[in-house]
Amino acid sequence: MKKLALLIVLAVAGYFAYSRFQAGNPERIENPVYAELRVDTKVGSRELNLVLFGEMVDDVDCRQRFDRAWNKLVEGCADCSMRLSSCRTDLEPRYRRLFDDTVIHATYLSFTKGSRYERNGRMVVYGLTNDEGDAFCDSLRQQFQTRYTGQVACIRGRRD
User: What is the domain extent for residue 136?
Assistant: First the structure.
C-alpha cells in the first residue's frame, strides 16, 4: 500500500503543478476536449489502473497539461507506466456519465473547477476493493481540497 500512497501524492502534485498554468483559461469551457490519462502499476500481486478524465479547453490545452504535469506522476514510481490515451471531443458514454456523478461499481473522485485555471475531472482507480477504493478516494479528496478551489467529492461505488 506504500506504492498506492506514493501514487496519491504524485497524482496530487502533478495535477496542482500544472493547474496554475495560465494559457487559454476561459471562465467556461464551451466545447471541451476530453483528456484520458492512464497509469498502471502493481501492488504486490495486484494490478491497479488509475484513469483520469479531464475537460480541457482544446487539444493544445490537453496535450500541454499532459506534457507539463502528468509525466511527474510517474517520476517517483519505477513500476508505473503512464500514457495519454486520448485528447478527443467525444467521450464514450460509459465515461461521459462520470461527469454527471453517476454511481458506478468503483468509487471515484469527482472534481469540479472553482476558477478558470482549474479543470473538471474524474479519477477512478480500478483493482481495489470497495473499502480500499473508499479510503483511497477519501485520502485523495483531502489532498485535492488543500489546493483546489472547486468542489471535490467521492462518488461511492455500488455495493452489489
Answer: 2-155
The sign one gets for the Cα dihedral 57, 58, 62, 63 is negative
Domain for residue 160, yes or no? no
| Higher-scoring residue by pLDDT: 96, 13 | 96
- Whether 46 is covered by a domain: the verdict is yes
Place of cell 453517476: 102
DSSP H helices in the chain: 2-19, 59-68, 93-96, 130-145
Q: How many domains are contained in the chain?
A: 1
Q: 93: phi > 0 → left, psi -120 to 50 → alpha, else beta; which?
A: alpha
Q: Is residue 95 part of a domain?
A: yes
The one-letter amino acid code at 95 reads Y
Nearest to 73 by CA among 5, 10, 6: 10
Which one, of 38, 35, 41, lies nearest residue 6 by Cα?
41
The span from the CA of 16 to the CA of 68, in Å, is 11
Q: Is residue 132 part of a domain?
A: yes
pLDDT of residue 20: 47
Q: What mean pLDDT comes out for the span 17-27? A: 59
